[in-house]
């Protein structure tokens, strides 16, 4: 599926949902939790800071596993 563009209801920043079926995303600008409905988006409030886990996996990491491409999106 192609990415879906929405506008953050908290700050007005553009947000890209990388998977068309994603229902929620955190705004990278104001850290609001944004829920996508069938006709509009809704601000569900702020999210807490996430502790650094020192994991080698992070959002945006891409590669191949068993011959299939992947990208971590959330």
Describe the structure.
The chain has 74 residues and is mostly beta strands. The protein is built from no helices and seven strands. It has strands at 4-7, 14-17, 24-26, 32-36, 41-46, 62-65, 68-71. It has a three-stranded antiparallel beta sheet, with no helix packed on it. Strand 3 and strand 4 form a beta hairpin. The radius of gyration is 14 Å and the shape is flat.
Q: Summarize the helix and strand pattern as letters.
A: EEEEEEE
Question: Unreliable stretches, pLDDT < 50, 5 or more residues?
Answer: none
Question: What general form does the structure show?
Answer: flat
The N- and C-terminal alpha carbons lie at a distance of 16 Å
Average pLDDT reading = 83
